[in-house]
Amino acid sequence: MNVTAARLGLLGMLLSALLLTGIGTGSSFLGPDRVIAALWGTGERMDMVIVWTLRLPRVALAALAGAALALSGALLQRATRNPLAAPSVLGITDGAAVGVLLFLTISSDAANHLTVPVAWQPAFAGLGATGFALLVLLLGGRHRADPLRLLLYGVALAALAKALVVLLLIVGPVYRASQALIWLAGSVQAAQGRDVVLLGSVLGLSLPVLILLARPLDQLRLDPDSAFATGLPVAAVRGAALALAVALAAGAVSVAGGIGFVGLLAPHAARLLFGSRAAPQLIGAALLGAAMTTGADLLVRLAFQPLEVPVGAVTAALGAPFFLWLLNRRGDPHA
Questions:
Q1: Are 252 and 259 in contact (CB under 8 A)?
Q2: Which of 30, 137, 140, 268 has its CB 3.0 to 4.6 Å from that of 150, i.e. a possible disulfide?
Q3: Which residues are listed as membrane-spanning (predicted)?
């Protein structure tokens, strides 16, 4: 067994331990044996209700959202050849926030009650995320998808989306503002089975495309002229990677909110642990992203019980210092 496979195996074991601990942690603690028995359908009736109805959706959604955001970040960084690229850079996260605030504003009546089922909220979030990302890609496409221009358009449109979010928070229903703010920070506390199915479907449909893209993404590490000389259709591969990154990030933020920095941190950590080849980096990034969000959700449940603190608060607290370090490192010519 080579080093990369061994590290991936250890990371898989760590994630499994976090998942079991997350499912077992709550007002009544369940040991790993009781959790496994409930998952297999052989546990006590009460244990099965706790696991399948109350805890599994939350833990599963945290893991899936982390994996999707990490994969999205890895694809963006490879497609733009920029290590600072992340889902929020293309306006995906902030676009989703605009969609959610629009939903809460237009679907609330005079008494501040929702007039449509809240199940429509992920659809509005997904539309907002996709809309802003497509706008960035269309503007960037005018300049042959130049990576630097693409990032600059993303920063500008993300700032516009943030301004719209503030405006909608001010003019929207006051009593919905706290709900919106929790979603904006990134939270899985209200996870339901349909959210897990939705995001799991997005990841499942993305898997064949990721497999097909693995080798072209390795070639994309070359400069565009060299990659084209190897027979790679650079524009097509870059476009496919960007489209898949948008789909993964939009799916994640539509059901889990704006969990920050996972799409930046996980790909970098995966590159350090598993090297620069696409296949092990993508697998490692997905496992690391899932472990980060699962671990962060477990941490907030243990540290702030009985308060519900958004998981995005922890990932942002860890990610912001790393982002500053990365910016300083990038500015050092000897780094």
A1: yes
A2: 140
A3: 56-76, 88-106, 118-139, 151-176, 196-214, 226-246, 252-270, 282-303, 309-327
Helix ranges, the chain (H):
3-24, 32-40, 45-49, 56-80, 92-106, 121-141, 147-171, 174-185, 193-219, 224-229, 234-256, 262-274, 278-304, 311-331
Phi, psi of 37 (to 5 degrees): -65, -40
Predicted confidence at residue 1, as pLDDT, reads 54
Tally of residues, the chain? 335
Sign of CA dihedral 329, 330, 333, 335: positive
- Helices H, strands E: what count in the chain? 14, 0
Q: What residue type is 325 in one-letter code?
A: W
Q: Is the pLDDT of residue 334 over 60?
A: no
Question: Which of 33-47, 111-125, 230-244 has the highest average model confidence (pLDDT)?
Answer: 33-47
Residue 45 lies in a domain: no
Give every CB contact of residue 22 below 8 A, 6+ residues apart in sequence: 55, 58, 59, 62, 294, 297, 298, 301
Helix (H, G, I), strand (E, B) or coil at 108: strand
Q: Domain range holding 158?
A: 56-329
Read off the amino acid at residue 47. Answer: D
Task: Name the domain count of the chain.
Answer: 1
Is 31 among the domain residues?
no
Measuring CA to CA, which residue among 82, 163, 96 is closest to residue 129?
96
pLDDT at 244: 93
**179-211 b/e with 16+ CB inside 10 Å = b?**
bbebbbbbbbebbeeebbebbbebbeebeeebe
pLDDT tens digits for range 122-159: 888 888 988 998 888 788 766 555 667 777 888 899 89
Residue-wise pLDDT tens digits, 168-177:
888 766 556 7
* Domain presence at residue 268: yes
SS3 content of the chain, % helix, strand, coil (to 5): 80, 0, 20
Query: What CATH number is given to the structural domain containing 169?
Result: 1.10.3470.10
